[in-house]
Write a structure and sequence with these properties.
Number of strands: 11
CATH topology of the largest domain: Alpha-Beta Plaits
Strand order of the largest sheet: 5-6-4-7
Radius of gyration: 23 Å
Largest sheet: 4 strands, antiparallel
Distance between the termini: 9 Å
Order of helices and strands: EEEEHEEHEHEHEEEH
Strand content: 25-35%
Shape: elongated
């Protein structure tokens, strides 16, 4: 039993995906105290100022060495320009390469404390896609795909993607999963996103071999 996922391959080379980062969605909500920003600012506690501190703290959790990424966006806060903000908040996107890294980042989130007197900070959310870690069975499946590719006349490499797919779920329950079997490309989520048209035919031929011979 195997799972084949037709997400885009990893470009600009010709790679299939044997590992994916886990994905987490969190929210941070900061509560302060409203006051007149001109007449009595000292009576307030700015949730916006506190959120700024927390965003910097969250940004410091990015770790290129382990592949952990933390992105804060979008953000919101305050009601009017002349009011010390009582509420502010943001959404947080998290990507982790391993289950252990996901546990570490959640502990770090829960350890966040307010810097601004009179404010409170609440973090909610969690990981909604487990990391797709390359098991020995998945590595063997990838080697078979590479062998088929050689017979079809092209070289197929393997790689990790920071994006999530259904493969995260199937790999997590122990089913050997081969992902990124679609055409490779680049520039995801930008105005320059593209797919390599020249890869359509060989990738289709590879899929036929996988479906008929596995």
């Amino acid at each position: 039993r195997h799972v084949l996922v037709l997400e885009a391959g990893i470009g600009p080379g010709d790679k299939i995906t044997v590992a994916r980062k886990g994905v987490g969605t969190f929210k941070i909500q900061v509560t302060g105290k409203a006051a007149h920003a001109g007449a009595d600012p000292g009576a307030g506690a700015s949730a916006v100022v506190e959120l700024a501190h927390q965003i910097l703290a969250l940004h410091r959790l990015n770790d290129p060495a382990t592949g952990t990424t933390v992105n804060v966006a979008p953000i919101h806060g305050g009601t009017r320009r002349n009011v010390v903000a009582e509420q502010a908040g943001a959404s947080i996107d998290v990507r982790v390469a391993t289950k252990a890294a996901g546990e570490d980042i959640q502990r770090a989130f829960q350890a966040l404390t307010p810097v601004t007197p009179g404010t409170t900070v609440k973090i909610s959310g969690g990981l909604n896609r487990p990391p797709m870690e390359c098991s020995p069975a998945m590595a063997e499946l990838a080697r078979k795909a590479q062998g088929f590719a050689r017979e079809l006349g092209f070289v197929l490499e393997t790689g990790m993607s920071g994006g999530g797919s259904d493969g995260n779920f199937t790999a997590a329950i122990g089913v050997p999963t081969l992902d990124g079997l679609g055409a490779p490309g680049g520039g995801a989520h930008s105005g320059d996103e593209y797919a390599l048209v020249a890869a359509f035919a060989p990738r289709t031929a590879l899929l036929v071999r996988l479906l008929t011979e596995l």
